[in-house]
Amino acid sequence: MRTHTCGELAAAGVGKKVKLCGWVANWRDHGEIVFIDLRDRYGITQLVFRMENDKELTGRASKIRSETVLAITGTVAARDKANINPDMPTGEIEIAVESIDMEVPAETPPFEVVDAPKADELVRLEHRYLDLRSKPMQEATIAKHKVLQATRRYFDGEDFLEIETPVLWKSTPEGARDYLVPARKSPGRFFALPQSPQMHKQLFMISGFDRYFQIARCFRDEDLRYDRQPEFTQIDIEMSFVSLENIYSVLEGLMAELTKVAAGKNVSAPFPRMTYNEAMERYGTDKPDTRFGLEIVDATNVAKKTEFKVFQNAGMVAGIRAPGGAALSRKEIDALPKAVADTGAKGVAWLKKTADGISGGVSKFFPEPIREELFSVFGGAEENDLFCFVADSPKVARASSGVLRGLLAKRLGLIDEEVFNYLWVTDFPLFEEDDEGKLSPAHHPFTSFPTEYLEQLERGEDLFSIPSHAADLVLNGVELGSGSIRIHDPAMQSRVFKALGFSEQELEDRFGFFLNAFRYGAPPHGGFALGFDRVLMCLLGRESIRDFIAFPKTTAAKCPLTGAPTSVSDQQLEELRLKIRKDD
RNA sequence: GGGGGUGUAGCUCAAUUUUGGUUAGAGCAUCGGACUGUCGAUCCGAAGGUUGCGGGUUCGAGUCCCGUCACCCUCGCCA
After folding, report:
1. Residue A488, φ and ψ in degrees, nearest 5
2. Radius of gyration of chain A from its Cα atoms, rounded to whole angstroms
């Protein structure tokens, strides 16, 4: 039906007879002359109709509206110099249309499909097929394709095998809430959709597929965010006979390639590394944004010398020195405590460095010589610095300072948006404490740890201090993924499960098939999983992973296009032996 | 489940900060007309509203109060 796309014709094509197909992006009717911009995914080409050439055709063209599908035949014509549009790749030419071969009319769309759709996201999602015609969505969708292909090329080149894993899988008690699928052939029983192919890929290692990858769909029935969807994609890898070093270097190669493909930037490997403890100390978070300084300073000692009771009673006084922060208004500073309230901080103390001393906030508590001591703790002080302090337990003080750090950097324009700062955060603890003070895996229960801690695990002593062979990959303060060396010794695995409080029976029911496999020759192995949608979001500088999911769900986990989830017929329920409770 | 924000024409927004007052306005889109070079065309004109929904206060509610729904952000949650 077409000889060319709407993006490829240029001056070299002048004189050619062509057939183009596409959607009407815009139209301009001047009476004697009519222009139509024809759009496909390759670009936009201007069509021109003249009354003097064909009155009937031009009259017909003048009635065509946006989003109509057209197929036309015409001749490529050079534009007069004055009429060249330098902003369009096809701006040197236009098509003098001779016939309209097909015209599929479109109703007036609910929003205008333009370069930057202004419509509310909900309206766009209800008509996602239209939204996807827009430039930003076309770009995001095409970028995703390119990154997917680059990923496959990269792993294929590194001798990885792409192997699929089941989507109908087994519910496990650990981790996120499962999406369940009733099993008709086994009434009262359920499949679960996988939260990740974790156990599958470890079984592949036992099978001898020593380098595996998959672009895997994962499902988690938890609350949504801008960076969390109930179904999302992971780049999932697993390798045998490797150390973490091998895993780092494979991923560094991948990310360098993807950064180039998606963002056109070169990043150099190896990526910097930082231990978990160091990250928490210097940045108050396990995913530090290293594009700017403002590191957390332990000002406890000097703060305790002041008469300020809040400082004297605190376990720690954490401080941030923000150059230029004195420009913040009183209103902005007063808003800081609320911004960090979620971390548990009860307040934010502050003072400003002025030309002749300090002022505002808690400055009166810092007379000389404590003032000089304060400055030296922060490595000096310049005019217009803002000093912020959070006094609390060390945990809260650091966490809220970490949040403050990000806020101040953003407000003061200290973040270079052009930079891609990758960072390995290493040596995560093996366990963490859940809300009830119970032990839970910090990464997942298959994570290995240095053997010298086996005894400590056995004794159940100070378990939170045991380090693991697990690391996260962080980009500009966003956690892209995590991985670890796994336990391949069944005895060690059982000990971890026991420490986590699983009974023999539970272990057998939930993980029996998995633990059994390790009895038949399990190689040492490890792997990693990257949140693919997040990688794209970061590399393309988008606000949400929804941009990279063709049909995403709302924060209430509903599909605005189809209305799913919906109720089902009584017959369907009957077949599954399910009954819906009506009372709630 | 908790907190915050938003909801007015098909779309994006206004409607005198806190403070209720005549017929709820504008831009874009749509429809009609004009125009030979536009490219976000321009000009003239028209049509378009259950102010998310329900209740309340009031002589009078887009505006105040209560409830509810949807969307977005956030805490919890996401091994």
Report:
1. -115, 0
2. 30
A66 touches strand B (CB under 7 A): yes
Comparing CA positions, the residue from A132, A130, A154 lying closest to residue A141 is A132
| pLDDT tens digits for range A316-344 | 999 999 999 998 888 788 888 888 888 88
Distance from C-alpha of A413 to C-alpha of A427, rounded to nearest angstrom? 32
Closest residue by Cα to the C1' atom of nucleotide B43?
Answer: A30
| Separation of alpha carbons A140 and A545, rounded Å | 10
Closest nucleotide to the alpha carbon of A343, via C1': B75
Residues 1-20 of A with CB under 7 A from strand B: none
> Whose CA is closest to A549, among A233, A263, A255?
A233
Low-confidence winner among A181-195, A359-373, A527-541 (lowest mean pLDDT): A359-373
Q: Which residues contact A38 (CB under 8 A, 6 or more apart)?
A: A6, A20, A22, A23, A24, A25, A44, A45, A46, A47, A70, A72, A95
Helices and strands in chain A, H and E counts: 18, 22
Whether the complex's predicted ipTM is more than 0.90 is answered with yes
pLDDT one-digit tens code per residue, A445-491: 999 999 999 999 999 888 999 999 999 999 999 999 999 999 999 88
- Which nucleotides of chain B are near protein (any atom < 7 Å from a CB)? 1, 10-13, 28-31, 34-42, 70-79
Is the Cβ atom of A443 within 7 Å of strand B at any atom?
yes
Range 331-390, chain A: CB under 7 Å to any strand B atom: 342
Q: CA A108 – C1' B47 distance (Å)?
A: 15
pLDDT of A252? 98
Q: Which residues neighbour A243 within 8 Å (Cβ) at sequence distance 6 or greater?
A: A485, A526
In this prediction, residues A341-353 reach a mean pLDDT of 90
Give me the CA A494–C1' B55 separation in Å, rounded. 61
Q: Other C-beta atoms within 10 Å of A359: how many?
A: 12
**Mean pLDDT within A269-286:** 95
Find how far residue A354's CA is from the centre of its chain: 41
C-alpha–C-alpha distance, residues A342 and A513, integer Å: 42
Our measurement of CA A120 to C1' B59, in angstroms, reads 39
Q: Where are the beta strands (DSSP E) in A241-348?
A: 273-275, 297-298, 316-322
Is the distance between the Cβ of A176 and the closest atom of strand B smaller than 7 Å? yes
| CB of A110 nearer than 7 A to strand B | yes
Q: pLDDT tens, A65-78?
A: 999 999 999 999 99
Kindly determine whether the C-beta of residue A38 is less than 7 Å away from any atom of nucleic acid strand B.
no
Cβ atoms of residues A137 and A549 within 8 Å: no
Please state the rounded mean pLDDT for residues A516-537.
97
Of chain A residues 451-480, which have a beta carbon within 7 Å of strand B? none
Query: Buried b / exposed e across A326-346, counting CB within 10 Å, b at 16+?
Result: bebeeeebeebbebbeebebe
Nearest nucleotide by C1' from A86 CA? B39
